[in-house]
Design brief:
CATH superfamily of the domain at 150-270: endopeptidase domain like (from Nostoc punctiforme)
CATH topology of the domain at 150-270: endopeptidase fold (from Nostoc punctiforme)
Radius of gyration: 66 Å
Number of helices: 5
Order of helices and strands: HHHEEHHEEEEEE
Distance between the termini: 209 Å
Number of strands: 8
C-alpha cells in the first residue's frame, strides 16, 4: 500500500463562521423579543399603591405633649424670675454699699463737728478761768480801798432791789425760771428791777449792756454784776454791799448770797 494513501481525518469539521453568527443573532433576537414582551405585559398591568400607617394621636399622647409644653413654659418663667431676682439682688447690694459709704461720711462729719465743739468749749473754759484769775487778783488788790470807794448802805430804789433779791434767798434755781419760787440768774435780776419800775431785758447778755459800765472797785448796792464780756455775758447777779452779791447761781446752790471772791465777776453796770 502506498505511503501516500488518503487517511480519513478524525477532527470534526469546522463550522462556518456565517452559520455561527446567524445562530447567535437568532438567540439574541429571541431574548430581546421576550424582554420586550415582558415590558409590554408589565406596562399593561394595574399600578401598585403602598399605604403607610401613621401612629394615631391618642389622648395620653396629647396630654404628654401639653405637659411638655407647660414644663417648657414653666422653665422659661423660672429662668426669667431668677434673672430678675439676681438683678434685684445686685441693685440692692449696690444701694447698700452706697448707703454705707454715706453713713460713714455722716459719722465722720458728726465726729469732726463734736471734736470742734469740744475744743471750742475747752477754749471758752480756759478763757473764763483766765478772766476769773485776773479779776480775783484785781479784786483782792482793791479790797482794802473798796470801803472808801463804794457805798455799803443802799438807799431809795437800790435798797428796794437789794431787799427783793435777799427775800428770794433759798429759792430753787430752774433754767428759764422767773419766780415766784424758782429763778434763773437773769429772771431774778429782771424781777428785782421790775419791782421798782425799771424794765430790763430778759437775758443776761442784754442786761450786761444796760445803764452805765462801772468799775468793780467802785460798786454800789443795786449794781448789776455780770460774768463774761459785756454783750455776751453768761451770768448776772445783784451787788448788795459789803463785798457781797445775791444771785441764782446753779441748781445745786439755788438763790444765795456770796462774797465776790466766791465767783469773781467780770464787770458791772449801774442802772439806778
Amino acid at each position: 500500500m502506498s505511503h501516500t494513501a488518503h487517511i480519513r481525518s478524525h477532527r470534526k469539521p469546522r463550522r462556518s463562521a456565517t452559520t455561527g453568527i446567524a445562530v447567535r443573532a437568532g438567540v439574541a433576537s429571541g431574548v430581546l423579543g421576550m424582554a420586550a414582551a415582558g415590558a409590554a405585559s408589565a406596562s399593561a398591568a394595574e399600578p401598585v399603591t403602598q399605604t403607610l400607617e401613621l401612629p394615631t394621636l391618642t389622648a395620653d399622647l396629647a396630654t404628654q405633649v401639653a405637659q411638655s409644653a407647660d414644663a417648657t413654659q414653666q422653665a422659661a418663667a423660672n429662668y426669667t424670675l431668677q434673672a430678675e431676682r439676681d438683678a434685684a439682688a445686685a441693685n440692692a447690694a449696690k444701694q447698700a454699699k452706697a448707703d454705707l459709704a454715706e453713713a460713714k461720711q455722716k459719722a465722720e462729719a458728726k465726729k469732726k463737728k463734736a471734736e470742734e465743739a469740744r475744743k471750742a468749749a475747752a477754749e471758752r473754759a480756759a478763757s473764763r478761768s483766765a478772766e476769773r484769775t485776773t479779776l480775783s487778783a484785781s479784786t483782792g488788790s482793791s479790797a482794802s480801798t473798796s470801803t472808801s470807794t463804794s457805798t455799803s448802805t443802799a438807799t431809795g430804789s437800790a435798797a428796794a432791789v437789794v431787799a427783793f433779791v435777799k427775800a428770794q434767798i433759798g429759792d430753787a434755781y430752774v433754767s428759764g425760771g422767773t419766780g415766784p419760787n424758782s429763778w434763773d440768774c437773769s429772771g431774778l435780776v429782771q424781777a428785782a428791777f421790775k419791782s421798782v419800775g425799771v424794765s430790763l431785758p430778759r437775758v443776761s447778755q442784754d442786761q450786761s449792756t444796760q445803764g452805765t459800765q462801772v468799775s468793780l472797785s467802785n460798786l454800789q448796792p443795786g449794781d448789776i454784776l455780770y460774768w463774761g464780756s459785756a454783750g455776751s455775758a453768761y451770768h448776772v447777779a445783784v451787788y448788795v454791799g459789803d463785798g457781797m452779791f445775791v444771785g441764782a447761781q446753779n441748781p445745786s446752790s439755788g438763790v444765795g448770797e456770796h462774797p465776790l471772791s466766791y465767783d469773781p465777776p467780770t464787770g458791772a453796770v449801774r442802772v439806778l
